[in-house]
Structure formats: C-alpha cells, structure tokens
Design brief:
- The chain is 12% helix and 57% strand.
- By secondary structure, it is mostly beta strands.
- The protein has a single domain, classed as Roll (Lipovitellin-phosvitin complex, beta-sheet shell regions).
- It starts with a helix and ends with a strand.
Length: 293
Amino acid sequence: MSNWIPSLRANRWRLLVVAGLIGLVGCSAGPPQDLRGPARQKGQAFRSEMKLVMTKGKLVMGAGIQREEGTCDMTLTVVEDDEILEVQGRQVTKQQTTVITDDRSMRVDGEKVPGPERGDLLVGEKILRERKEGKWKNTLVGKQPTTEQQKELYALGPLENTDDLYPEGKVKPGHTWKVDPAHLRKLLGPGFTEVSGEASMTFERTTTLDGESCALINLSMNIKGKMPDEDNNEVNIELTVKGPEYRSIRSGYNIKSSLSGTMKLTGTIVEGGQRIKMEMSGPVTVETITKLK
C-alpha cells in the first residue's frame, strides 16, 4: 500500500492542476474587443423588434380637486424592417424603414382603454429617412402623408450613430465606463429633450448567442427626459433599468438586450376639453432583438 499512495497523491495533484486549467479556459472572458464594431454598410438589411411591458403599475389622474387612482398595465410592441441606402463614414445618411407592427395597448383596473391607436398610422408604410445639408427628413415612399401621419414622421427624429456610447479602441473584459451626459439622449431616443441622469456599462466577457460571437455588456441607467406628445403637451419620463445586451463582434449590432426596472410617466392629457394631470409608474421590462437578413 505504501508503494502506491505517493503515486495517488501525485496523480491527485495533476488532476487538480488540469481541472484548474480547464476552469480557467472555461471561464475565460476573452480577448480585448472593439465594442464600436465595424461601420454600417450600404445594402445591409435587418429587422428590429422592441417590446416594452409595464405590469401592475399605478395610475393617478387629477383635475382640480378631483383625484382618482387605479392600477394599469401597458404594452408597446414595435417591429420594423430596415435597409441602409447610403453611409458617410460611420453615419447612416439614408435608410428605408417599413413598419411591420406598432401595437400600443393599455388596461386600467383590468379593463382595456378604448380609443384610436396612434401606433397604427404608419403600419405597412415605407418611410424614407435621409439627411440633406445637415437636416433630417422623413417622408412616405410613393404617397403624401395625412396630417396625423406627418406628426408621426416628425416624431421619428434622425438616425443617430451610437459610437459615443462605447469606448474608443479595444478594451479588455471587465472594463467599465460611464456614458457621457451629452450622449444620454441616444439611450432614450431622438425625440426626447432635457435628458439628464447617468448610465454606465461594463464589458463582462465574450460569449456566444445563437451561434454569433458577442460582447456581453451590462447596462445600468437612471435617466430622465421630456418629450412632446401629439397635442404638444410635455410628457416626462423617468427610467431606471439594468440588464445585459449582446453586441455582435462581427456586425457591431446589438442583437439582443433585456432590461428591467421601473418607469414613471407624468404629463397632461386633454379629455372633453378638460386638462387632466396623469402619472403612471411601475415595474417595466424592455426587450429588443435585431436580426440581419
């Protein structure tokens, strides 16, 4: 027995060393990556899907001394097909967008809120989005928009390059950075103004999603902004969310993100000629998927 105990001990240490090396390889965060990725290319076509869901939110409405409270559930689903027509440097300057789905629904105390759905106005339409002489213009392809459609086209705003959200050059896994306050608006959308707050990102590691090599980036943000609605009333948004985004190493597109947290909307609506203050707040999830064709 005394002859093979040393051998077992030696083999045991070899196994531990090998297991340790395997563990290091399996947990490897990967090499440094350029998170901005390659520039967009003319001819690229892709489908983007976004779904925002608020469940068991709180709704407060008031006019004068009257005040009502209730629960609310809200769902917003947008699906678009896009084709890039022109690029200058890293900035898309011309793109055609086809709205596939734009569903907006809301329930108050379990009952669906009736009324016209603004989101249906551009469904099925082809939209040409182009920048000329530094100004963006959104037009319908082959037809004149109605007054309501024109409001929706204006609300789309410009296409923006998102390079400023990511560090310049290659960074190692574990790298954390804060988004410059001047660029926070790109996280909410071009239609928002007076955006403030803070956001940070961490490049966790290189991973694979649906066969695509991706940079896994954890995003955390707590930001506020203002946006005019269709009646030129100001809507305030407060969004505090965090979660992962998967950024393709090959294409530079965020192919999936899943954020969760809380959202608060405040503003004024006009009902029967009366101005009613509204506040809606609650837990929210925001999921996005982008697929190149």
